[in-house]
Amino acid sequence: MALKPAEPQAVVIFGASGDLTRRKLLPAFWHLFLEGLLPEGIAVVGAARTEMSDDQWRDYARDQVKRFAREEPSDERWDEFAKRLSYVAGEFASEQCMEHLRERLEWCDRTQGTNGGRFYYCATPPAAYPAIVEGLGKTQLHREAKIVIEKPFGSDLETATILNRILHSVFDESQIFRIDHYLGKETVQNLLALRFANGMFEPIWNRRYVDNVQITVAEEIGIEGRGAFFEQTGTIRDMVVTHLFQVLTVLAMEPPVSFEPDRLRDEKVRVLRAMQSVEPGKIVRGQFIGYRQEPDVDPHSQAETFAAMRVYVDNWRWAGVPFNLRTGKKLTRKVTELSLSFRQVPYSVFKGTEAVPPGRDALVIRVQPYEGISLHLNIKKPGIGFELDRAILDFDYDSAYHTPLIEAYETLILEAMARDHTLFTRADEVERAWEVVSRVLEDPPAVHFYEPGSWGPVEADELILPRHWHVMLPPEARER
């Protein structure tokens, strides 16, 4: 189905001078403009405390697009896009700032055809959310509007509940879009197609055939100067409750009765409600050696830069199947993948021979890099005799489609502008995710140290014994 431009609307980016805006949002709006996916009546208003004129904001936006976008800002097309950019400076808690914003939006309606449509993107630290929401409510700028809230949605169950209460005091749930960019990734969305558009997988997508599930989100980089953030947040709050749990719910959910957004989200919430609370003994917290020497980090810090845990989904489909999750900084390489390892054959006809199966069958979804899907099987090795070997049946986007994948933020912005909640999280979903990890956050186990460039502390390997973590080799290594 071809995508159509959304209705006319004025976009307001709160936190317009911040890192998220320059790296992701400005390039995303630029690409959507080039593809003709933005409405004819569109304006992008930057809002931040930093003092800038409209022309300075346009110059700033062009510099960031040139640096971070796939397509550089060519003069003719950029000039057309830049006409839609303007800027409002001020403190979000200030009534004067919100009145100034109201005047600018009315100007956008008159001169740029935005026709009263409003789309607010909160690209600020979470501490600014209440002031933004309350300010929009006081000035009546919330009516018929859409608002995007970036993660983290609170720092625990209590703060998430308070944030939802603040949002609902001004906005209806249908107006709120809680964004987790992992749900916008092409390969995560393709998991829905893999499961529900193919008859061959559904009969084996359950405890009878699946031995264990693994989700790995590993990064080579460190904390990138965000010591103060990590000291307050840590990896569990930053990654597990958001990205990993979101991917887990898509992987484990029951087939929805339709692709209507709330029916899809109903099934994701049911997975979270079926999950056992994570016990401190079923999680390993790690910290890379050298973290305590980073700027703004406590020299005795117990903040985790790595987390591995085993969780269970107590329902008819998944009872007894361990879901092993891990994520961390300063690991061996950047990789995000999901794997389902299947049970061994019930009886080996090769018993008493030298033909020993070298491994379990596995279905691996590579989210990044080398995006694709692989099926790992045991086969006969060519030659005299009967020796078993491993084979990989592989699909990858690059060779199949020869086109770059759309950025997650582009997909999610477009969906939110069109009021489609399919790829966004609901209030009850957020609160239940925090509830699952509440015990660990209240009584966290001590961190274990690990060498930068490793796969994390050895305790993470011990956590899932007798199984082992699976990580797909990059194509160049597999070819050798």
For this entry, give a set of tags.
480 residues; alpha/beta; nine-stranded mixed sheet; six-stranded parallel sheet
Structure summary:
This protein is an alpha/beta fold. It has 16 helices and 15 strands.
Shape, per Cα inertia axes: globular
How is the main sheet built?
Answer: 9 strands, mixed
Strand content: 15-25%
Helix content: 25-40%
Overall number of strands: 15
How many H/I helices?
16
Q: Output mean pLDDT.
A: 89
Neighbour order of strands in the largest sheet = 14-13-12-11-7-10-9-8-15
Low-confidence region ranges: none
- Separation of termini? 41 Å
**Rg from Cα:** 24 Å
Structural class: alpha/beta
Description:
- This protein has 16 helices and 15 strands.
- Strand 4, helix 5 (129-138) and strand 5 form a beta-alpha-beta unit.
- The longest helix has 19 residues, at 234-252.
- Helix 1 (19-34) crosses helix 12 (408-417) and helix 10 runs parallel beside helix 13 (427-436).
- It is of the alpha/beta class.
- It has helices at residues 19-34, 54-68, 75-82, 95-112, 129-138, 157-170, 186-196, 227-232, 234-252, 261-274, 397-401, 408-417, 427-436, 438-442, 458-463, 475-479, and strands spanning 9-14, 42-48, 85-89, 118-122, 146-150, 176-179, 210-218, 283-288, 306-312, 322-328, 335-342, 362-368, 372-380, 388-396, 448-450.
- The protein starts with 8 loop residues before the first strand and ends with a helix.
- The strands form two sheets. A nine-stranded mixed sheet has the order 14-13-12-11-7-10-9-8-15.
- The model has no long low-confidence stretch (mean pLDDT 89).
